[in-house]
Amino acid sequence: MKILFATSEAYPLVKTGGLGDVSRALPQALKQHGEDVRILLPGYPSVLSQLSEIKEVCVLSPTHSFQESGRLVEALFPGSDLPLYVVESPGLYDRPGTPYLTPEGHDWPDNALRFGYLSHVAALICSGHLPMPWKPDIVHCNDWQTALVPVFLAHRGLARFPSVLTIHNLAFQGNFSPDWVQKLGFPTSSFHMEDLEFYGHFSFLKAGLVHATRVTTVSPTYAREICSSDLGYGLQGLLSHREKDLMGILNGIGPEWNPSVDPLLQAHFSVSDLRGKTRCKNALRKQLQLPVTPNVPVLGLVSRLTHQKGIDLLVDILDELMNEPLQLVILGSGDASMEQTLREAQPLFPEKLSVTLGFDEALSHRIIAGSDLFLMPSRFEPCGLAQMYAMAYGTPPVVHKTGGLADTVEGFDFNGPAKNQSTGFVFEDLTPQAFMNAIRSGLSQFQNKNAWQTLRKNGMKKDFSWTPAGAIYTALYKEIALPS
User: Fold this and answer.
1) Which SS3 state, helix, strand or coil, does residue 39 take?
2) Residues 152, 94: one domain?
3) Which of 37, 209, 282, 369 has the lowest CB atom count within 10 Å?
4) In angstroms, what CA-CA distances link 288 with 82, 279, 327, 394?
């Protein structure tokens, strides 16, 4: 089956979050299941600069709705034999900053046009209106940035074209001024609650949810959560209405997250030989200028420093945490006030706290490998990948029971630590004290060597590969495909 995988980012070409990781790994898994899958990306500078042997597929001429011109080019996704299509339009994508934000951190004012155009080109590929030999059977869209693909198809008389829309985070909806309805070529009559309109805005995601053949999200628990008022962000009614077409499919992690071969680690280890983990722990301490103290656990956190990620809970218990016999290593960036609080705290606890603001891929691997506990107190987490990385690296996570965290972490069972399948520590009440209590549970079990080894190995034995998700998506595509 021929699948067009339309997305706004894919690691290592461009990444701002989990979507980038998924957009690299899921197409590879689909290809292993025998699907003819091709990725479609915008032509950001970071994308084009990393490609070799770029070939022009066709020129993208201006249309009545889109005056922008450009071309569709093709290359192989780096490190693979996976075909990649890139929408090359310098006026839209050749900019500094992130794919979505200016260097000053503001939304690009024409984001509706930039990602509307990406969806427009994807729809042209699906409809066969571009002079290219390959035409997909299914289009798989991701988040608001490509959610208009099934909308364009429906408004161009191709409503039956099979489409899957994956919600990676419902909080980001692509809501714009109603002016963009006509600017993107839709009739003004489509601006109503059963089509493009969402509380007075033109919502890319809401419109996609109306028109997509099927809707998926990235964990079974999150699929249920977004049908409620707490995490539905105003779309719970629509999602509940489409419940029979909504499915939660748990993400996986890529094969590069393997502590036995990870080139970013100072030592390797496996479930059958954990000696290298201690070397990783001590190398991490030395790198971050923390004392190498025997029998003292290291707690790691790699995250965006935001309210969603529960970092305020960590800030609230920081002084209490620093009174415990432990070291805390933090890597991340985000909310300015949270960054400032952590920056100011570090010199107060020079032998116990390390704070690195920003993002460092190698350091993130080393923190996950070198920590004894991994902290992830997210308020909501559609899937989460870091908790799976942590378990794969023998680092039990401490998580809030929500979304993909609830689906992947088995809370510690104090009645049978050597026999059960516990992989981490789970707290339900979203309070600083509940978080602190879960951490204390982890610190307590750290002193029990036999139980701790069992806990680590339980996590490392879990199958978090993309193989199960790839099989489920392949079955879903077959279910919605049009008869040949």
Assistant:
1) strand
2) yes
3) 282
4) 38, 14, 11, 21
**pLDDT, tens digit (0-9, with 9 covering 90-100), for 251-302:** 999 888 999 999 999 999 999 999 999 999 999 999 999 999 999 999 999 9
| Token representation of residue 384 | 């989460």
| pLDDT 10s digits, 380-399 | 999 999 999 999 999 999 99
Range of the domain at 378: 275-461
Name the residue with tokens 């009739």.
Answer: 187
Backbone angles phi, psi at 400, to 5 degrees: -80, 140
Burial class (CB in 10 A: 0-12, 13-18, 19+), 323: exposed
pTM of structure: 0.92
| Angstrom distance (rounded) from CA 415 to CA 413 | 5
Per DSSP, which regions of 267-322 are E strands?
A: 298-305
Could you give the CA distance from residue 484 to residue 482 in angstroms, rounded to a whole number?
Answer: 6
Q: How many CB atoms lie within 10 A of CB 106?
A: 10
Residues 333 and 246 in one domain: no
Instruction: Kindly report the CATH number assigned to the domain that includes residue 295.
Output: 3.40.50.2000
Locate tokens 């392949």: which residue? 474
Question: What CA–CA distance (Å, rounded) separates 75 from 206?
Answer: 32
The number of distinct structural domains making up the chain is: 2
